[in-house]
Amino acid sequence: MLNYAGTPPLAAMAETDSRQLIAAELRSLIARIDISLRLIDAAIEADDDSAIVDADLGSTEIVVLDDVTPRFATASAALNACRAELGQALQNLSESGDPA
Asked: Could you tell me the pTM of the whole model?
């Protein structure tokens, strides 16, 4: 967990600087979510590939394993929702910077 105890308050910064800092942090979070989504997709694909390999071996033994794909799908859906909300926050932040 990150410790922000030594971080100066945003109120001490110019409004433009604080908005840019927040926007950069939101973009960073979106990028981290994108990485996590790619990792989940790769894990699902690897899980699917291993199931195909096992079926190709022609084994007469059937082993039932806990299917992790639904958990991956649930995590992926949650991350997609979070990404959408962060994107909306970023859009709202950029719109608030436009003079009306």
From this structure: 0.66
Residue 63 φ then ψ, to 5°: -115, 125
- What digits encode the pLDDT tens for the residues 62-98? 555 556 678 899 999 999 999 999 999 999 998 876 5
Look-up of token digits 């022609």? 58
Q: What is the 3-state secondary structure (H, E, C) of the chain?
A: CCCCCCCCCHHHCCHHHHHHHHHHHHHHHHHHHHHHHHHHHHHHHHHHHHHHHHHHCCCCCCCCCCCCHHHHHHHHHHHHHHHHHHHHHHHHHHHHCCCC
Q: Which amino acid, 88?
A: Q
How far apart (Å, rounded) are the C-alpha atoms in residues 71 and 74? Answer: 5
Angle subtended by helix axes 15-56 and 69-96, to nearest 10: 160
